[in-house]
Task: structure prediction
Amino acid sequence: MTLQVLSVTSEAVPLVKTGGLADVAGALPGALAPHDIAMTTLLPGYPSVLAKIGKVRVIHTWDALLGTPARLLFATLEGEHPLFVLDAPALYVRDGTPYADPVGHDWADNWRRFAALGRAAADIAGGAVVKRGKPQRFDLVHAHDWQAAMACAYLRYAPFAGQSVPSLVTIHNMAFQGWFGHEIFGQLELPEAAWSIDGVEYHGGVGMLKAGLASADVVTTVSPTYAREILSPVFGMGLQGLIAQRGSAVHGILNGIDTGVWNPSPDPLLPATYSARTLARRKVNKRALEAQFGLDTESGPLFVVITRLTQQKGMDVLPEVLDHLVGNGARLAMLGSGDAAIEHALAQGAARHPGRIGIRIGYDEALSHQMVGGGDAILVPSRFEPCGLTQLYGLAYGCLPVVSRTGGLSDTVIDANPAALAAGCVATGVQFDGVDYAGLSAAITRTAALYRQPKVWQRMQRNAMACDFSWTASGRAYADLYRSTTR
Result:
């Protein structure tokens, strides 16, 4: 029997993206289709979404969705997967990002914007939408991060027409929890029973992620290691006790990548396509990348960085190691934006080392393909990383990941330690401990030394490219979890 799943998310490619959540939410419908799972995605009606969805049909209206008029639009995602868009102009039609105004300040009404998304999801799952004269029902609701987590609380405390529907919440990043002051509780249209330590109350306010973790039938994270890490105070960020309490309801399932988009063989964004058998063709991409970033053409390794410039990503340490990196005969091409102080420090490093360090502030999807297709190694020195996608892109393109030993980075990269090199060279990258000068500089030194051994390096590249981090295994794992939850 086909299982009907409603996926609730604040972003999804190709319609709106600020981070890896969008890649996952966009890929899940296709990953689950082979397992007889029909997934419908529910998104807020941001201007960018409304501009891209094309032909729509109004299938439901709310006179007052948490006090705001709203419509539910039906369309299809890439002409194939069903899509619901919550059209509430007062909540979503505004300049800026999905979460912040044009100068980067969080919208003051984010609590209402995303609680309304959760309320709408619970209504839809419970049968508020009528299709061919009958309520359209769903077997399961899958909520992503704090922005969608209130769907689980509404299903638990105030289901539409009393219809009980199982729910699952995925933690993509525990650092973002959606906490708001107690004064909003009366406007959430939840019963008083929800205001409890086992409900939405958290440190005297409303914790939206916490509400989802407490209310969902199942909790997932995006890697097995992160599922263990969030049991500790360092990674659990105040919610480790609740995670421990949920026990066997917590699962870690690795994210996958869309191999139809991230594949060096047919990638139209690369100057030269290639495979594991034609690695020599990568040199064309490397030369093009050097030209793009104004880098000297030299024989040493070319490191790349594609990330948000934040402390979580370890980017405060990167400026400290630039002199060391150049001293190892290496160069760096960096693409990203974020903390102004980090951007400034990187610009200073580039000024000290013209032709050796090149930076681009911003994000460019095409350029990111060219960077993993032409770079030799990709640096991912995150202090915590629930899963990570850039290291997976690096593996797929033979751009060997240099990663800190945490979360999904630990689960996806095999360190080039002596045992891995001796065992027929099963290594696919470099792992290191300590996101500080000593840890990152030592990893750079080790990577540069491996690069100077062409046979070893090429074997590692082929190992990396042979890894299967498509959605095949992860899609099957989600499908199995959905079915066990709805039995």
